[in-house]
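S.,

Sequence below, as promised.
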Amino acid sequence: MNIIIYGAGKTGQYLAKIMSSKGNDITLIESNPVLCNKLRTLFDISIIESQGIKKDVFNRELFSKCDLFIAVSSVDEMNIISCSAAKKTGAKKTVARIRNNDLDFMDEQIDLIIHPEKELSRELENLLTYPSAVDVYELYNRKIMLISTLVSKNSDIVGKSLGEISKLYPLNNVRIVVIERGIKAHIPRGDFIVKENDKFFVVSDREHLKDIFKMTGYNGGEKTKNIMIHGNGKLVETIGLELENRGGFNIKIITEDETRAEHFSETLINSLIVHCEATDINILAAEGIIEMDFFLALTENDETNIVTSLLANHLKVNKTITRIEKTDYIPITRTIGLSRCVNSSISTSNAIMRFVKHGKVLSSSTLKGTNVVMITFQVSTDSKYVDIPLYELQEKIPKDSIIGVIYRDSKPIVPSGNDIIKPGDEITVFSEKTSLSKVENMFG
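The prediction came back faster than expected:
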């Protein structure tokens, strides 16, 4: 695809990196000349330095070839205007990141509006709803879940192969698609031996999630009630309002900003707002952090979030969620004890990739912190891989790839070895990046 990205902040850079790695033709438009020079040394893509929106840049020669225009500058109004200019000069599809909800009505030339705080808030809600999960992804209009969870030392699957586990737990509508160990993710086979603290990525319907948690050593009966949130930005307000609307939570918000504390007190009427310094361990203890089920570190500073999360861990808080915007930090977070992390660039990118359809590839996204891509294909009528049981088809697929979901007649199927693919099905494949081209050649 020919993709033009407007704005080279953290999100723009992450999108350029991910999308160029998949063979797309990327052009990045950025106004900061110093940043442009830096990016030219980092990326093998076209970079255009442009202040504002100029006719010599937004022209039909460039944009008539544009399959997708993505506006992720720091200014909402510029994202809206640039989408309009891109559409009028030939761009086929436009996407805008907008933080101000009041600007939603200005969407005539925008095919997809993404609110990063809403995307992150939905991710946070899922993690609070399923406290034994480390990551939660929703597939096929939330009909299917992809969750990750750590194998507890209490689990009886430790030391057993997946083949042996299938006899202990004959789980229906459940499919283990990825196992992460340390910083390496594996597409497992039946002889894979499970160790404590392995991170399972499992596809399931909602009804069977409790079976996954039981298998990995959790009782599934734990509930989230007491939540402490540290931060002062829009994300804190968004998740606070969502949790208040749901009800059933005791919410305490810690912020160092007196003005934001007053604002939160006016908008979050069922939450307790505390104006204090959250990086002081004595203050956190005095505010009752040891009584919390979850501590959410949601400031806009990665280092502050890491420090306060580690303090919460030291004070024996059951679970923490850490906002980390530097994507290079994410692969090492588990090694320092931070298993649950959220990132707005990854959430925004995944929302865009769910929207993008190109040929038989309906969507694709990278599992956070791994080398595994989740990619969905439309199976063509002339495919030579239809009507073959998956246990046979799996021998034809690269070893570091696995079919995780089949979607047929508006119903998702979590497949077993005897299921087959039919023409017209959508299939979701999990593949390490090294085998992605082979998988795309097979199904795309």
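The mean pLDDT is 91.

Coffee later?
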